[in-house]
Amino acid sequence: MQRKAKRAGALLAAVAAISMLGACSGGNGNGGNAGAPSASPAPSAATNSSGGEAAAAKPVEITWWNFPTYQPLDGEVGKYEKGILEAFNRKYPEIKVNLEMITFDGGPQKLNVAIATNSAPDLIYDAPGRIIDWAKKDLLAPLDDMIQPDVRSDINEAFWKQSTVDGKTYLYPVNTAPFLMGVNKTVFEKIGELDLLPLDRPDRTWTVDEFKKALQAVKDKAPDVTPLGFYAKSQAGDQGTRAFLANLGGSRFLNEDNSAVAINTDPAGQALDWIAQAAKDKTIVQGAASLAAADVNDLFLQGKLAFTINYSAVLRAQNATLKKAEFEDVLLPYPTADGSKPKLEPYLGGMAIFNNDNPDKIAAAKKLIDFIANDAEWGKKNLIQTGGLSVRNSVTGLYDDAEYKYAETARAFITDPPTIADGYAEVRTFWFPALQSALLGSSSGKQALDEFASKADAAIAAAKSGSK
What we know:
Layout lengths: L1 H15 L43 E7 L12 H13 L3 E7 L5 H10 L6 E4 L1 H9 L12 H5 L3 H5 L2 E2 L2 E2 L2 E7 L1 E5 H6 L17 H14 L4 E3 L9 H11 L17 H15 L12 H9 L3 E7 L1 H7 L9 E4 L13 E8 L5 H16 L3 H9 L2 E2 L11 H9 L13 H16 L5 H23 L1
Parallel strand pairs: 1-2, 1-3, 8-9
Antiparallel strand pairs: 3-11, 4-5, 6-11, 6-12, 7-9, 7-10
Helix pairs in contact: 1-3, 9-10, 10-17, 13-14, 16-17
Keywords: Cell membrane, Lipoprotein, Membrane, Palmitate, Signal
InterPro entries: Bact_solute-bd_prot1, SBP
Pfam family, one: SBP_bac_1
């Protein structure tokens, strides 16, 4: 009953923050189709290795809700997941898995309603932003008993920090990729300015001045292309705006222990002033205050933007068939004032189990997680189908592609994201209003960041106090 009460409380928080619900996933906001058919009912008995019928394992039925984590097979969202379940049922015929595909647009709200009405799925493949918030509300089952020592030691501590609460693991990490900028390389080739991009540098690092020179070249020589995309409509894709501004201003978003805002510095305020002025000068897409991350990425896929600030190897793979114009897209890190190493936030995808007070369902869901992540045949296949890199240090070279190889190099720039901070679910609701205020000229960049810091710090402090 205590857990049910917490779920009801979780809905109240969700309703208050309903506008943020599409945020921080690996997708660009363009989800798949909901309601894919469930897997076929499993046989009631298993067959042993000698061909005889073994004693039937206890049947159990679980539900898996999945965002479009995997690239569609034959253009059908959910078809690849059905293949996973067919293979899984050959190994575990006693476990029936009901698959339901949800979208990045409506899925978060649907999840919050399900949690509050005690009808949450058993398994979800998602990112830390939501999963860790659920864990802090005591809605998930810990996974430590299924994580082998060799797996734990093969994954960087930065990923475990995003997967744990109070020393317990609630997210089983699988795929990752650093968030970067996407660049229309073809535009620079056409205007004869490809050398303005740092593609010949092994780490591709570059300065803010070099970046601005590249933007100006597009503005001067490709009048039908807007140099840079930016957005401030909703919380979706907030990681792109956070990292872009933090690197321009040479700061962190939150301080080292995630206890307070750190981005409200004079240099970061000046960088936000530059963004606002660039929008007026048409260096940045018009109407940025009313555009969402998905809108900007759509403009990029139409060939109308030279740079988009919320990109990754995963998005590049997902977008390969969605381009509405022919061009080559490449990856670049955010520029820094002196060309030093940038601070990149990682996309992290993994699985979590809702504690629906049924040990048999939890055990069955753990078997599915282990199969998806570690099966000798399907583990690697599933990872590649996400379009992501492995979180495991020992698993590299999955793709014969220059941009993937660069993305692996850029993992060296990954830092811990602010999404693990106490109260971050509320903190992020203050971020885009601050950006809008600066873009619309209601405040200077520094004033907007100070106002954000005041509200965000109070939310973090309240969350820390409430968790004690």
